[in-house]
Design a protein that fits this description.
Chain lengths: 227, 298
């Protein structure tokens, strides 16, 4: 394992060292110590690395991640794992707003709470939150799944497309066109697998499923003639 | 974009170090606001009478002459000290009388704050320079709030520098922008609230002052602010006894809170909190949208 300390190595150098692994991978395991809310830690990775970040991360940690497995041993600021393509990002503490925004793939696990707009415009990522999520989570979610083991804030799933949402606790309010849906066997099976992969010890049967009612403009075939 | 920071001490033993604890917090927010900076510190109470913070850009301004003129003109006790471009006056009379007299007889002087406890110090320039100019690290007090400004919609001037104070011992720092400040300013002017600038944040401070004058508690004033103020805001507010944080219902602008047995700290970003003692084990969380957080001494 290679350890890099933010106290004596610049973030640019640390990220470059991680990026260099995309060509020829010489070191699989990395530890970044001394994180004190620095932005953009471990962004743009493109190799099967295991990266442990000690301390709290600032904005956009592990953004655009591809293939790597990143663990933040603390809290994460805005936009953790934004636009992730693949791999895994795990936050041991809490995450600020817009966690997993626009992410296309991979698995994002937040063991604590996530702030507002968790999974906004998500496009295929799977997000599992151990605690609560804030308002407007999954806004315009297009694909993938959001699992909330705690409660969800206002306007959950507003203007949703095909993202699946599972919430164990209460939902403050549903957004436009988001409705509760039946939990069928295939959903229990999917959720069981996802909770297992996220390492969450929860009973899949205690969750409710939410999704798009498909009543907004884009779902009306009559509007196709506008193009 | 701007940076805001606040520190409220629960443990009085730390009061002698508040400036030293706060200086790195303010400087850490330089990335978010390199244009101007300022802070409001509470402490060194004037029980009977008034404390004013006055500013004149000339370092050699004759404050002693102004003190003498106030003493004679108002027949009251006057004590003062100078700190760079500002002077702190402690007077035996009430705030309204003192400010009216100074506005009338020394219009070249800018009144930054009035009250029993508050002192506001602010300048255009980098936070580091401002902290050094006013010797922030040597200051004592019970709570302090600060602002680093990145000017976006008005010029880099003293007029646009935070904190804003529109009433005794009340001040506010703001990250965001208010949309309905012009209409609200007109209404508040009709109610007798005085404004020094065209800045939106000053209207936020004026609105809170108006509500407090109407008999609201700080919490009630902030509940009303959530209904009446339109726009984006994370506010940190200081009063003689307390410290409050509130974010608008959309919560676009960032904020993080940290609490230990010794203090409550607020910052736009966690980076500003990393130098506080015991931060590793502090309770750290993101304040919720439209939720009012208040800490007050009884």
């Amino acid at each position: 394992m290679k350890t890099l300390d933010l106290a004596n190595t610049s973030l640019r150098e640390i990220n470059q060292a991680l990026h260099d692994q995309a060509g020829e991978c010489t070191e699989r395991e990395w530890k970044i110590t001394g994180a004190k809310g620095d932005h953009n830690i471990a962004c743009g990775l493109d190799a099967s690395l295991s990266v442990d970040i000690e301390g709290h991360a600032g904005y956009y940690c592990a953004g655009m991640n591809k293939k790597a497995h990143v663990v933040v041993h603390g809290n994460a600021g805005q936009g953790v794992a934004e636009n992730m393509m693949s791999g895994t990002v795990r936050v041991k503490g809490q995450a600020s707003q817009s966690a997993g925004a626009t992410a296309h793939g991979g698995l994002l696990v937040i063991e604590g709470d996530a702030g507002a707009r968790c999974g906004i415009s998500m496009k295929g990522v799977e997000i599992v939150v151990g605690g609560n999520v804030g308002h407007m989570s999954c806004f315009m979610g297009q694909a993938g799944a959001l699992v909330v083991c705690g409660d969800a804030g206002d306007a959950l799933g507003d203007s949703l497309y095909e993202t699946k949402i599972f919430v164990k606790g209460s939902v403050a309010s549903l957004g436009a066109d988001c409705i509760e849906k039946e939990m069928r066997d295939e959903h229990i099976e999917y959720l069981t697998d996802l909770l297992n992969r996220a390492g969450m010890d929860e009973d899949p049967k205690s969750f409710k499923r939410y999704g798009s009612a498909r009543n907004l403009y884009n779902f009306k075939v009559d509007n196709a003639s506008a193009y | 974009m701007c940076g805001i920071v606040g520190l409220y001490l629960k443990n009085p033993a730390l009061e002698s170090q508040i400036g030293a604890l706060f200086e790195p917090m303010l400087i850490a927010m330089t990335d978010r606001g390199p244009d101007s900076a300022g802070f409001a510190i509470y402490g060194d109470e004037v029980e009977n009478g008034t404390k004013l913070t006055l500013r004149h850009e000339d370092m050699n301004y004759d404050w002693a002459a102004l003190a003498e003129s106030v003493k004679t003109g108002l027949d009251t006790s006057v004590d003062f000290f100078q700190n760079a471009t500002v002077a702190v006056f402690k007077l035996g009379c009430d705030a309204a009388t003192a400010t009216a007299f100074i506005e009338e007889t020394a219009p070249e002087v800018l009144i930054l704050s009035a009250g029993h406890s508050i002192e506001i110090l602010k300048e255009v320039g980098l936070p580091e320079h401002i902290a050094e100019t006013f010797n922030l690290k040597g200051m004592k007090g019970s709570h302090i709030i600060g602002h680093t400004r990145m000017a976006t919609e008005s010029a880099v001037t003293m007029a646009g520098s935070h904190p804003f104070s529109t009433g005794e011992d009340l001040c506010l720092v703001h990250n965001g922008s208010l949309s309905n400040h012009n209409r609200l300013r007109l209404e508040l002017k009709r109610q007798g609230i005085h404004f020094e600038t065209e800045n939106d944040s000053e209207v936020g401070a004026g609105y809170l002052m108006h509500r407090l004058q109407q008999g609201d508690t700080l919490t009630e004033a902030l509940e009303n602010a959530l209904k009446e103020l339109d726009g984006f805001f994370t506010f940190t507010i200081g009063t003689r006894n307390g410290f409050a944080v509130v974010r608008d219902p959309i919560a676009c602008k960032p904020a993080v809170l940290a609490e230990t047995d010794d203090y409550v700290a607020m910052a736009s970003e966690y980076q500003a909190l990393t130098t506080l003692p015991g931060i590793e084990n502090a309770k750290v969380w993101e304040p919720e949208a439209a939720k009012i957080y208040v800490w007050e001494r009884s």
